[in-house]
Structures are given as C-alpha cells and as structure tokens.
Design goal:
Distance between the termini: 55 Å
Number of helices: 13
Number of strands: 7
Mean pLDDT: 80
Structural class: alpha/beta
Number of domains: 3
C-alpha cells in the first residue's frame, strides 16, 4: 500500500503571500505588552528555521483576505520580512466557512487558540463581544468549553474600571481579586487594590471584599436576610431564567437545545432540590 493510498489531501489548505493578508482594525484582542513582543520574537526565530507549521485562518471580505486566527504567527512573519528575510514567500492558510457567523469567528479566538494562551482580560473581551452579539453566558460557556461561572466572572471583569483592568493586565492582581474588589467597593475598587499592592498584600483585598460583599447581601437597612431563603430565591431565579432561555432557543438554536438541554435541566433541578428541600412546584419542560 502506497502513502498516497492511505493519506488524504486537504482541499481547504491554501498558500498565500503574507503581505496580501489584512488585519481588521480592533479585531485582535491581544494587548501589546512586552510579554507578547517576546513571544512574537520567539515565533519569528522558529519560523526562520522551520517555517509556519500551523496554518493561519482567514476570512474573505470584499475580495480581501482578513486574518481571524493566528495574529502572532502573522506578526512574526511580517517581522522577518521587515528584517530582510527573503525565503518567506507564502504561508499556509485555511479559509473560514463562508457560512460562519460573526459570533463563530469571535469565539474561534479561544476555540482555535493553539499558541500563547489569552490573558483573563483578553478572554473577557472575547466574551464581551459574544455577549454584545446576543449570546447568552450559557451559550458562550458551551461554545468555548469553559464553566458558566468562568464566563460570568470575566464578563464582570470586562465591565470593571479601566484602572482595575490595567492592574490585572500588569499581573499585579488576579482577575478573581479584581472582580471581588469591584463588587465590594464599586468605584473605590482601584484605590483599595492599589493600597493592598503597596502593602504587598493583594490577597487581603479579596478577603475584605468577600466580607463586605457578604455584609451587603445579608444586611439591608438593618434587616437580616435568612441565608437559606436567599439561596432558595437565587436557585428559583436561575431555574426560571434557564427555562425562559430554553423556550427561546427552541426556535433560534434547536441543535443547542437538543444536545445540551437535558444536562442543563438536570443541573438546575438538582440545585433547586438541594436548597428547596424538594418542595418546589416549579416545572421545566
């Protein structure tokens, strides 16, 4: 048996002059940091030696090729060309499915990422774009194969003050601590985080934020809220929201409902049963 008989050619793999590839302004979510520049330098060294091994992904718009995945590889190629490297005449590319939606292309920045992982701030930007396109957090989590809590946390991070996000980008505080601080201190989160950083105790802000947040949830206008009743209410609200989402998705996304609905329903029922003692009359179809 010959090699030709046991292999298949890839009809979707093409080669294109990298100078003919365009970048859509604002598309790439990666922040221009020293860490990213170092990564691109290392990629350039690798490409100089072995070429581009992982194809870039492009989408055709108005007769022009725009990169949708592989910005770091592209930047490394252009860096080599600028430095006079003449052996990089073409790079392998895969063309996006012409029927792919804008959301699918945005999500691909996480789904297809095979290189340097996106930072929390960069992932938050992807989730924010998907949410702005009408995607529910549950849909985002399913598409990007991450937990719902992860998506919700980073959506909150995307809405944080820019000064707070800059602290996360600089790796002075974690995404978790930043979100906790914003929930507890609101517009004063940046100041509290900076105080903790100056004292070299960033984790203490998270602990204080937890305490402040707990106090806000359990004491309002001097009235103490029963924690059990609070959990019951939250579970019922989650259950009802999921039920409403399923009703809508049956029309707009029947495939998602068919594949994921049974698991979501069971999880919601279990959560409701645990906090409600099995006495709820809520029904979900």
């Amino acid at each position: 048996m010959s090699l030709k008989e046991i292999t298949q050619s890839r009809k979707d793999l093409l080669y294109i002059d990298p100078t003919k590839i365009n970048i859509k302004p604002g598309w790439n979510v990666r922040a221009d940091t020293e860490d990213l520049r170092d990564h691109i330098e290392k990629l350039a060294e690798s490409i100089r030696e072995v070429g581009v091994r992982v194809p870039l992904t492009i989408a055709m718009e108005d007769g022009k090729a725009y990169i949708t995945d592989g910005h770091c590889r592209y930047a490394a190629c252009m860096l080599l060309i600028q430095r006079g490297f003449e052996d990089l005449k073409a790079v392998p590319v895969i063309v996006e499915d012409r029927y792919a939606s804008e959301g699918d292309r945005v999500a691909s920045m996480i789904v297809r990422n095979s290189g340097k992982p996106l930072t929390p701030i960069e992932k938050a930007e992807v989730y924010k774009r998907l949410h702005n396109l009408g995607w529910e957090p549950v849909q985002i989590a399913a598409k990007c194969t991450v937990s719902l809590s992860h998506v919700l946390q980073l959506l909150e991070l995307s809405a944080a003050p820019e000064a707070v996000k800059q602290l996360v980008t600089a790796k002075q505080v974690s995404a978790t601590e930043a979100v906790k601080a914003v929930k507890a201190y609101g517009s004063g989160a940046t100041e509290e985080l900076q105080k903790a950083i100056a004292a070299e105790e960033p984790a203490s802000v998270g602990e204080q934020a937890d305490q402040a947040s707990q106090k806000k949830r359990t004491v309002r206008k001097g009235i103490t809220i029963d924690p059990v009743k609070r959990k019951q209410k939250a579970a019922v609200e989650l259950y009802e929201a999921l039920s409403a989402a399923l009703d809508e998705w049956e029309t707009t996304n029947p495939e998602v409902v068919a594949d994921e609905a049974p698991r979501w329903v069971n999880l919601a029922r279990e959560a409701l049963h645990k906090v409600d003692g099995g006495h709820s009359n809520k029904q979900m179809h």
